[in-house]
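Need tokens for this chain, all 88 residues.
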Amino acid sequence: MSFLPQTVSVKDIQRNYRQIFNQAKKTKEPIIVLNNNKPDVAILDIQLLESMIKQIELTDALEAIKDYQQAKKDNKLINLRSLADLID
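Here are the structure tokens for all 88 residues:
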């Protein structure tokens, strides 16, 4: 992925949406849509989006594992016998 993403205007989308969408699919890089010269939305290939979601989920899972390991190390784990124990 390049350092600076490609940008297009809202008018560019209105005139050349198919070409812009095809470019996003081909390059697998996001395209930022500017509205009044300000970033408004991003267009990205669905495979890139799915990859990003998986990466976020993996990061969350690894963080949960680290939290568990730290709680175990600090002897702060508790045994729950029911959902009520969790609420108390």
